[in-house]
Write a structure and sequence with these properties.
Blueprint: E1 14-17, E2 22-30, E3 38-39, H1 46-54, E4 59-64, E5 69-73, E6 79-82, E7 90-95, E8 110-112, E9 120-124, E10 128-132, E11 143-145, E12 152-158, H2 165-175, E13 181-182, H3 188-201, E14 210-219, E15 237-238, E16 270-276, E17 286-289, E18 301-311
Bound molecules: 2-acetamido-2-deoxy-beta-D-glucopyranose (NAG) (4 copies).
Keywords: Signal
Protein name: PAN-3 domain-containing protein
């Protein structure tokens, strides 16, 4: 990949272009920093760090130097301090190709957009850059992610008692003041976030093989009682509000399971994202489970958790 790389930059940002995106490059760093950024050190030279960001769709910026590499996704950063060589921290931010540079950075509106409305604008006031996003989450506590339906918000709640899917949905609706429904998963960033939050919320629960997070999805009637044509994998499920892509459903062998639960009272119509506890092979994978129960029949997989989603407004 051929890239034009400017190394002699001081006060003013410069542009670095490649086939897929243009980066605005200057001395600076997000301030305050976001806990949702990821430390990718050691990545080698800072250019490698920039390449990591260019190679990741949701990545908005990379900052650091030849020894530190931190990348941050869209919607995680609000302010960026402009500094100088004395702090030895560079920042590269994705912007639309047509933005011009160098120039009067205070009058140029730097923007980045995708066809789905996951976009931002950068403005400079002489010492600091402000990032503005077109939408925000309906309530505090949700984190926004880019989706093909536009910005989408996710929050994880822990229920006090073990929870069925029906109670999990009620919790989601109540806690989101009616704005939310169970969330599905459309990226590894969303899965990582749901699992990280779950881990924080249930730190002290260790008595199961896995803890389950209720997510959206209901088995299609035509896939019960037998797995018909068109019922493979995630295709066997419907009801995914706020979602049009399904590339991150990783079912372990044997799932989805089209049998009835135990002696035959209910089908396993609902979906759960699993988090490792005493076992880890299914960590981050999705299984189907009976909506009406908080635990599987062997009581080795139980749910305390709900992933709630809402469109940004
Ligand atoms: C590299 O950047 C990081 C993050 O800003 C900073 O903490 C660190 O001191 C810098 N390293 C060097 C060698 O300057
Ligand atoms: C670089 O930044 C430091 C700290 O903000 C400041 O004290 C210094 O004057 C700046 N140097 C130049 C050349 O602008
Ligand atoms: C620029 O914006 C930053 C962050 O909002 C603020 O702290 C700073 O005072 C502003 N500076 C000027 C010159 O307006
Ligand atoms: C874990 O902690 C929560 C809140 O601190 C508490 O309600 C719950 O009973 C604890 N669970 C276990 C298994 O200790």
């Amino acid at each position: 990949m051929f890239r034009l790389f400017f190394v002699l930059f001081l006060a003013h940002p410069v542009m670095e272009a490649n086939a897929s995106a243009t980066m605005l490059l200057f001395w600076g760093y997000p301030n305050p920093s976001s806990r949702f950024c990821r430390d990718k050190s050691p990545a080698g030279a800072f250019e490698n760090c920039v390449d990591l960001c260019l190679g990741s769709d949701p990545c908005m910026l990379a900052f650091g130097n030849d020894s530190t590499c931190i990348i941050c996704d869209i919607f995680t950063i609000k302010y960026i301090a402009q500094s100088n060589y004395s702090e030895n921290t560079k920042i590269a931010i994705k912007v639309n190709q047509q933005n011009q540079c160098p120039g009067d950075v205070q009058s140029i509106q730097y923007t980045k957009s995708d066809p789905y409305g996951n976009s931002y604008e950068l403005s400079f006031n002489g010492s600091s850059w402000t990032v503005t996003y077109p939408k925000s989450c309906p309530l505090g506590g949700f984190r926004m992610f880019p989706r093909t339906v536009g910005p989408y918000c996710i929050q994880v709640w822990r229920t006090t008692a073990l929870t069925t899917r029906n109670d999990a949905l009620a919790t989601c609706k109540k806690q989101s003041k009616g704005a939310g429904y169970l969330s599905g998963i459309t990226s590894s960033a969303e899965i990582d976030y749901i699992l990280d939050m779950s881990q924080l919320l249930v730190r002290n629960v260790t008595n199961y093989d896995y803890l389950a997070v209720w997510i959206s999805g209901l088995m299609k009637p035509e896939c019960q009682p037998t797995q018909g044509a068109g019922c493979s994998g995630i295709n066997a499920f419907k009801e995914f509000p706020g979602q049009t892509t399904f590339d991150y459903y990783n079912f372990p062998t044997g799932y989805p399971n089209f049998a009835m639960r135990g002696t035959g009272d209910v089908y396993l119509r609902c979906l759960q994202l699993l988090m490792a506890q005493q076992k880890s092979a299914f960590d981050g994978k999705v299984i189907n489970a009976a909506c009406e129960y908080a635990c599987n029949e062997a009581e080795t997989i139980c749910s305390h958790l709900v992933a709630c989603g809402a469109s940004a407004i």
